[in-house]
Amino acid sequence: MAYRRTPAVQARLDAQREVVLQAAVGLLAERGYGGCTVAAVADRAGIATGSLYQHFANKAELSVELFRRVVNREIAEVGTALARQDTPQQRIAAVVETFATRALRAPRLAYALLVEPADAVVDGERLVFRRAFRDMLATEIAAALANGELPEQDPVLTAAALVGAVGEALAGPLAGAPESGAADPARAAAEVVPALVSFTLRALGGRDDSDA
Questions:
Q1: What does 97-115 look like in DSSP terms, one character per residue?
Q2: From the UniProt annotation, which stretches of this protein bind DNA (predicted)?
């Protein structure tokens, strides 16, 4: 007869898995993927390395789950900011502003999510991440087109181009931050984010209030 875990045992394992993921999130924010070794995560979580393998078969599996955990949090934050706005163009600006601000204020973590070399499985997850933001923007671009706020364009193609442009614009500041440790995240956000929002609205053919 196959062994079946009791509810108490399963609850204990679920709680331990959550501790492992929280430890991994902390290490990712501090050291990036290079610092998220299985041994380091187990040590931070206060468990034996062998115990970690009860939850994740290898580092790649842990990295994927870690990436999804952090990315889902970022998507939720952007979605909350978007929902507070009234018009499609305001919501588009909110997506870019929130994403870029959060990235620049947590540069080590954002560098790991967007730029840092990692396992191939993480690169695959990055595609999913970018598509999620593309779809957010495409929905609002389509709404703005329907309202006559923007000139005719392909919402999905434009959104994909914007995601790529914003990511590339952030890559430079993020790539320097992990090593120097001297960058002022608040200052970087204050300088870069308004320019990215302005670029986005102008690229769409919409109204940029900074021109007023």
A1: HHHHHHHHHSHHHHHHHHT
A2: 37-56
